[in-house]
Fold each of these.
Amino acid sequence: MASLTSWNKKDIKTIIDSEQFDVDYYLSSYPDVKNAGINPIIHYVVYGCKEHKQPNDTFNTDIYLNLFGSVIQPEENPFAHYIRNNENIYFFEKGLLQEYSHEFLTKCLNRFKGYALFDPDYYQDSNKKVSFTGISATRHALLYGIGEGREVLSPPRIAQYLGNECKKELSYKPTKQKKAFSAPKSIGVFYHSDGNSFIQELAELLHAYLTDSGFTATLMTEQTPLSQKPDLCIFCAPHEFFFLAGTEEWRRENIIEQSIMFNTEQPQTLWFTRGLIYILMAAGVMDLCHQNLQAFTDIGLNTFHFDPLVKIEKTRLKQADKNHPFFRVLPEAAQSGSSPLKNFSNRSIDISFFGNTSLKREKFFSRNAGFLSDYECFLYYRKIDGPLPSSGAYDILSRLPRYVAENSKILLNIHRDDNCFFEWHRIVRQGMASGAVVVTEECFPHPLYKNGEHYLTESPRHMPNLIEWLFHTEDGVQEAARIQRNCFTILTNKTLLKAKHLDLQNYISSVWSTVQ
């Protein structure tokens, strides 16, 4: 090894004292250094900077040299010069996120590093055609991979993490008192006007939840003028809102970093990954899935489980809905009206299902076609070809699922794939609150709603046996009535409702205290 000059020794001391050199990053990024038998910091100072190596994943030696090469002494190490003179300036490329500051992206990167579902080794192995020279896998995933639609999150990590979360004993612990935080004067609940009607429905539920909890909340869309920006923004489905047209003004750094993101997607999907960038940027995140929360909490996000008690109320169709083919194929008794309070035996539709096609669902319905043909069924089974907007030809689908469920004895929940989940919207909002008995595959545990008490689980192969028992035996009919009563009891529990409102008040106030 070459002898160290006085400049080398000075630079090495500066870098060591700064504690900014990332030894693990350097060795993992440049395996040849492991075999060199040289201290990584000494290697970088003497050789690495000349070989275009980086001391950590937020400093780019080449960019710094291009900017400050004229004032760096001939023997001086560029990273040491940076530490001495420009430590408050960031030097790395921004990739597809040019509109955001280096400081803001560094905060996102630090969060992403600790995110339990990301594995840099998996990402690098899955993208062998990508050159990671001068950029870590973590930084590439954040700055390029998410925006390019790559598979960013690790399926083994997801399975391991969610599996461990599902092993935890889960029960709802009511909040007993309101914390002494101030609250925003106005809250905007945003959804995209060209997005999925399902997202708009969730936005409307959240809006009602906020209003009933005492906040001044307004439903807003990408068309809302920036001049009407509320004190606190909550963006529903960031994977959809920020990627559809017309949201440029709302993507601003100063807005996102003071906002809450409402995640509606499962971590196994590319939609979840696409929205992750905005979750990492935000002040807080709300999620339908309780098992998602701990991973967000661990990286410093303020989290909240969105599961309000759904009001038991009759679905009101528009007059135009009654001329729609979907309505005209309903049994005559169902066309005459609906009620969530109608008892199990008096419902005119035996089995209903609403969902998009998937290979797993295709197998289920094909295998059970003969069985289902013996019953009065309403099965809406759609190929995905884009969002289902709440206007135009699909407008009726923002109301029909609940209307059908109010006339159904059983509402089926078949998972899209082999990744089980608790489909809160289908199970609680569409099924339980409509008085239908939900028969579902095994789901993730939920703090409030329990298998055998509020819904029934069975493997797809044996679901026909369970349904036959519910329909055709005295014990089964009694069990269906018990499940229905249990659902009504929990959804109308005023003490529980008060606690849920208090939960939301405390959460909004805690986020607001950090951003105002």
Amino acid sequence: MNNIPEKKLLFLLYDRTVIYLILVMLLYLSMGEVYHNIQIHYIKDYVLFRRWGDAMLIAFPLLFVRKKILAFPYLLLINLYFLSIVWYYRVYSTIMPLSSYLMVYNLDGLSLSIFRLARFRDIFVVFPSVFWGIYYCFVYKKINFLLWTRVRTSLFGLLLFGGIITYYACKQNPAPGYESLNGLHTIEPVRAFKEFGFVHYWIYQIGIFQGVSEKEKEYAREVMRSLENGNNCAKKKVESGRNLILILVESLHSWPIGMCIDGVEITPHINFLLKQNKTVYFPKEMPQVKDGRSSDAQLIINTGILPLLTGAASACYAANTFPSLPAALREKGYMTASFLWDDKNYWNQEAMSHAYHFERLYDRLRDSEKFEQADEQLFEKTLPLLVNLPQPFYAQIVTMSSHYPWIRSPHMKTLLDDLEIKNEDVKNYMVILQYVDECIWKFVIQLKERGIYDNSIIVITGDHDALPYNEYEGREELRGEDCFVPFIILNSPLTSEHTNKVIGQVDIYPSLLDLMGCTDYLFTGLGESVFSNEISDFATYRTGISAGGVNIPDSVKTQRERCWILSDILLRMDYFKTNTMLSFQ
């Protein structure tokens, strides 16, 4: 009788150990499928053992679950997390930062986009958990609960585990790697994720919120002190008092502009506007957004600094102090407003509009949730609000229709339908751009009819890349020039000698300060005005690839590239809150 408690304890120990080991193996297999979808080779053989360690840690809470059925909701959450990583990577080619999981409002209206990202093979991500459900219902509850049976089961599990580890550990992993955890996460976060695993990624992400080192702070202060007030602006005389209307177009690339396929123009109205007097067009603007995507574009254009190396500033640092284009214009007596089709919570835009010093924010300018009708609704509802704004004003208008997955409404009939374009995404993207092109054209016409156009500078630019030119060509290799977005200025009071050169998205901010006569503002950004006598003709993409740079000194390239690290430090230390910027006075 005295042996009964001991046997029960031993039985419970074996029972939980076997279940835990089975769940670890299943999670290990799920994680393997997640990594398989991230198309970068393993770095070293030991990453397979790290993955096993990750699986053990993730499954660890299940070791203490008394009722095995409670493992199902936990596994459901884990599966959703795994799938979010895969789907996010398919769109943004990077790992979803932990900060983005705080942006739950971003899911509103994106269910179809998420559905379009799913692939049949994704079932293999969740299949191990499905296997657990089958095992629990048809095997676990029916096996004989004798101690020797559990021992035999555990031995089988250990044998299976050994076979998996031996198989994976013997695989060749030819890609070179890095020894530094933080260094690799900073330079190549996707590769770091695959080499160091989930837990290390979480540790690095959590570390982002721990501020900056004294060495980083001193580096930022030193570089900022070396900048001179407005040295990156042309400082040309500009007549003040003109409105500024910035149309930030979702996913607008440069390559479709001016393109004609069998006599069919993709953007006929924009093509017409480019031929008008006082139009300045830079087709080679390198988008420089990262994890924050559209929100990063607003950050770059409105503040003149680049985004975080990891994470979205709109999620992590919405409480920061920013010098900004709206603030510079408000000093000149401008009204500033931002106009959104989507909800103000999307990308935390309400908080960021305050941080950028916009006085007004108009959101949900729509009649329906359909992307394919978004832009006509946005411009239709924006126009009367714009007319009633006190002049001069700065209006930022953020479009939505050309957001992936490029949904066509039934009334979108186009001559492109008669053309043979094998890639369906490319074809739909072109059709949607024809629609966006028409919406912008109608809006410009209405501005003229309302008497606003002649007294306004209108800027049209893409927020980020979405379907680079190599996909149109059917080419796998991604080059910097494949990603270009346009920078168009209508009614420009200034001209430029550099319209065929490569510029960065970070160059828009000082260029707009030039256009609006705000070169005396306390911070003129980290980029270069396109209206300066000389520009670098070099810019880097978020992955590190670059464009331009022919006959450009390495020192210039280094200076442009270091802006990424500098901007990351400025954001993390909230530089503009704690520094008086005496060097800019």
Amino acid sequence: MRSSKWAVAAGIGLLIFLFMQVLPAIAPAMKGESAAISRGEAKRIGLAYASAHWGMDLGEGSDATITHVGDDRMAAYMTKHKLTDEYDRDWDARYPTDVYAVDIHAADGSVDRVSVHMESGEVVGWARVGDALTDADKAAASDADARTAEAIAWLKTQPDYDASAWEPTGSLTQGGSVILQSRKSGLSDAHVQLLVKPDKVLTYRYALPQAFADELAQQRKIADKLSMTGFLLPQIVMFVLAVIYAATCRGWTSFKRGLFLSAAFFVMYAGFMFNLRPGLRASSVDMNAIASESNVSALLVTNVVILFIQALLTYFAAVGGDGLWRSMGRSLWPRWQDADYGSQVKTAMKQGYMLAVILLAAQTIVLTALGLLLGSYYGSDPSQSAYNMYAPWLLPLLAWCAGISEEIQTRFFGIGLVRKWLGAFVRSKRAGTHDASSPGTAVSKVLTSIAVLPATAVWAFGHVGYAVFPWQTRFIELMIIGALFAWFMLRFGLLTVIFAHVVLDSTLMAVQMLSDGLSSDNLAGFVSVLLPAAVAMGIAWLHERRRGGPGPASDFSR
């Protein structure tokens, strides 16, 4: 296929992606409608509120943690029932589904929370969480009516609330707060509830219809099971097989293969996990709960250990995959020793950019179609948001981690492994017959196409836990996108799909950063899209210096 045709396809893909995804996502930010305050500004607001309203004088030993927390179930409910515009108009200013939770850890060990609106900076809720239940609280908790009357009387003294706008539910939270429900209609069958405990708690939550809550819980249960059986267990098996084939195919490859990439994956991802510590905090609690810092530290350590194991899998998959493909007569990954290695890297980068925009367009079309066919809807995941990063501009590191690990593990090794098995199976069936030769070209193509499916399914199952419902949405989407990635790898090689994957994810992350409304991240978003080109040019330059000059250029049409 001539490169001009790929360029045309990439141009069309870029237009589809820009008009269907980018412009709708960043339009509010471009108009200044969704500008977000920084984590530092949220901390300042929270501490000032505590000082002014509670007389807190934070001395030595005091600290404050800032976490973006959100009601992911309500976000899913709004997208499913198309309530976002109504919510933005009538509810977001006072009862946002996402807030900065400023948790103030005083020197005496007590904890207080101030919930800050992420755009306006207004305080929308607070809780003296560190105050333990007294014996009087426990005794009064048995009398919901008395607690409710007391809460309503106290609410009337609060200048920003109209007590008549709330009706009692007759219920208390486990912490003893009275639950009041808004009399205002809207948001379909969802309701805003106020949690009131005089002088201790004044915050809110969204109450969803039980049928929807059950549906969402069931979807997540299915996704968790599929992730376990369709991704985690195959990953364990793949690790063992990668070690075995790295050893058995050592005559076709080198144990130096993948050392740099797997080490880079671990260093980048481990560093990113420390950057995402507030996200780990958000993943362990709901919107009105405070995480244990010791639990967050344990979760961080656990994740780093898992990442180390993933890095080992990436390394052995790189060695084993290279050996498998070369033993089958194919070279999908150039070596540093090749005279034209630098030229091949630059070509792979150029191919990667073109293929990335084709993939972005394909993803946009597939998700749009699935939205119509399956009624897909989306939740939110504060644990992965840029607002929960100390340095949000490091978000694109994930693109490199995913591009390196997933392409080497799933595509390069996974497809090569199954293709090797299928070839051996066909040869065993032909053994002893009049035709004991290797499979012909047509049969070989069929076997390779079949080999793509298991590896692609494992990759797709690894992503069904995302906040996209029903779970089939992401599975179908990624089976299609994964098949395209596989085709591109088989046609253009491993480096091309790594670059394509990195560019694709970097572009999506750049759009997220532009739409998040953090002005400090706008430049970082653009840089992240250009970084793969800079890295490729740097590698090519370094190789040419070491080799004494550029090698022959590779052909995009091969």
